[in-house]
Amino acid sequence: VGLGDQARRRPRQLSGGQAQRVALARALAVDPALLLLDEPLAALDARTRLDTRAELQRHLGAHPGATLLVTHDPLDALVLADRLVIVEHGRVVQEGDAAAVTARPRTDYVARLVGLNLHRGRADGHTVTVGELTLTTADTVHGDAFVAYPPAAVALHPSRPEGSPRNVWTATVTGVQRHGDNLRVQLAGPVEVAADVTPAAAAHLGLTPGRPVWAAVKAAETRAYPA
Fold first, then answer.
1. pTM of the predicted model, to two decimals?
2. From the CB of residue 74, how many other CB atoms can be counted at a distance below 10 Å?
3. The CATH number, out of the four listed (3.60.40.10, 3.40.640.10, 3.40.50.300, 3.10.290.10), of the domain defined by the range 4-82
4. Tens-digit pLDDT profile for residues 114-141
5. Contact 1, 12 (CB under 8 A)
6. Which long-range contacts (CB under 8 A, 24 or more apart) does 140-144 make?
7. How far apart are CA 60 and CA 182, in angstroms?
8. CB proximity list for 124: less than 8 A, separation 6 or greater
9. How many other CB atoms are there within 10 angstroms of residue 187's CB atom?
10. Contacts of 90 (CB under 8 A, 6+ apart)
């Protein structure tokens, strides 16, 4: 776990992150039939976490027994787990492999974990009605349904956009936060939604709390599936 040069140090001479990696090494060294990991990367700084996650993934791939990993970090879960069981308010709300969970979240909590906007409504073919808003989707669904799409799929405009058919509605900016190289804009309206825009676009649109905008999402950017 990258601590060979610390082998002669006393436990009290190790940082919290180093002690955490020693604990991982100690657990893996005895080749257990069952490995229980509770927030194994929680005490690590960002760089050490990245390296240790990759090392742990390699060890778990070679581990012949079962591993139960508990974590609040969605990236840890998606990278390290073969099967996800998501618990919300003490209840299992979804389970499956990473591809299934990220493609079709079933609660707002899961959608936030995997970085998607999620709405529940009533579907009739290529349309899903969510409250007062009707969304056109690329998928055909009937009955209770979910619609999911990433924040990057939401385009913001100062006036109603023209051009190719798309879902459009009026919204109000409620918050703007840094999100990687972009800004994540929180919007209120007929549905609550997050949009990712560049800093240049945010400045051009004057995106500050209370600003009215038009939100647009192309049907091809959405995923609809039974609720």
1. 0.77
2. 18
3. 3.40.50.300
4. 889 999 999 999 999 999 999 999 999 9
5. no
6. 140/224, 141/224, 141/225, 141/226, 143/226, 143/227, 144/120, 144/226, 144/227
7. 34
8. 142
9. 24
10. none
